[in-house]
Amino acid sequence: MRTLRSLMLAAALAVALAVTGFAASPLPSAYAKYAAGPTKILPLQRAFPLDELVELSELRARDRVRHARILLGGGRQSSVGGVVDFPVQGSSDPYLVGSKMTMLYFTKVKLGSPPTEFNVQIDTGSDILWVTCSSCSNCPHSSGLGIDLHFFDAPGSLTAGSVTCSDPICSSVFQTTAAQCSENNQCGYSFRYGDGSGTSGYYMTDTFYFDAILGESLVANSSAPIVFGCSTYQSGDLTKSDKAVDGIFGFGKGKLSVVSQLSSRGITPPVFSHCLKGDGSGGGVFVLGEILVPGMVYSPLVPSQPHYNLNLLSIGVNGQMLPLDAAVFEASNTRGTIVDTGTTLTYLVKEAYDLFLNAISNSVSQLVTPIISNGEQCYLVSTSISDMFPSVSLNFAGGASMMLRPQDYLFHYGIYDGASMWCIGFQKAPEEQTILGDLVLKDKVFVYDLARQRIGWASYDCSMSVNVSITSGKDIVNSGQPCLNISTRDILIRLFFSILFGLLLCIFFSLT
């Protein structure tokens, strides 16, 4: 009997160690009102060659197309699970972008049964995930971007479903001015962009696949049905093979965005994040969830705006505020400050741009040689730009400042007359909107907190792994490891051992 009691006590102590590990886990409650679910992942990839230089004029032309899309709506349609992490490829350096460039950052998604993989542009300025349909007659079949193009085969997918005109998805919840009814009763769409390009097709429902992180080093396949666009017609630049991709992955605020669809059903949190690498290799990560870094600052989103608008209040150069009237940044339907991963450069309204350029030039007038190259303001530098050029701060509502290093507003453009030539990367906005593109978004974690209607950011080396919040019970658990630390599965296992521990103790004392 004594031997049995000893064995029972030893077993109880062993289980107690497992329980102690659970009890020591941190349990912050950033999203306590939401339910639990597994953590999810997706990667970003590069979409263009890096062995060709390209002029700023070409980049501006590309961004003008982008901005026309934003101003026209960009195809906009008028209990939480886990985190989805998309590995990113691409680069923010326009001088390393091949001349056949069409976007900077993209990722791969899988749709259908059996699943087909698609290369899609990451875009916070639009809502819809759309891919090219196999029934498209004029869509490109090859790409000059070094990627294989794929087509969604609706009849060949075992889980594909059409969205009819009478479906609530078309007629109410997701009904927009872009939705239209086709002759065969399919809920269709037609997006026209300011550059003359466009896409039309119809909405589908099918299985969307991703990797679910269930705990540290534990990844499982996961999936969910979503509504997306199947493109049957494309025009303009979308038809050019040298710029062809499989579609666009919109992360906008609309109800038809993948973020909204998944979070409204409790599959992912109402928050997404990205960390874009700024060096020549590019890449990064895009997470349907919250990346955790120290020093995060937040600014509230401007309400009733279709895009991710922030209230920019002032700009500082070397700690001195530019003499700007804050009214130049006021938000309206055609004004304000937009955060947009689909824009390459960064654009300031005319009043701010002129003052900014003069402040930078005056600050380094005794240290560098100014030079105009292809109409751009550049500087010949003999040493590190960090030692010569001033820091810049973009100051937003809520007391949040975005600190910019010289490499966040300058581009290196080779060697001239034995010196390094650096050019101003900020551009004068053709409209009245200030647009923060990848030039300033790189090398930072950005968190789009849709539940609290705010955007946060902090400087970060995006070549490193990131800490991500995981839902656990009714709480978000913050990992102290490079990946994820605890999950719902962990909690259930440890809960089982807790119950077992209690039973063993009861048996032990009943035998004494």
Automatic annotation (TrEMBL):
The active site is at 123, 340. CDD domains: pepsin_A_like_plant. It comes from Arabidopsis thaliana x Arabidopsis arenosa. GO terms for molecular function: aspartic-type endopeptidase activity; hydrolase activity, acting on glycosyl bonds. Belongs to the peptidase A1 family. The keyword Transmembrane helix applies. It holds the Pfam family TAXi_N. This is Xylanase inhibitor C-terminal. Residues 105-458 form the Peptidase A1 domain. The chain crosses the membrane at residues 491-511.
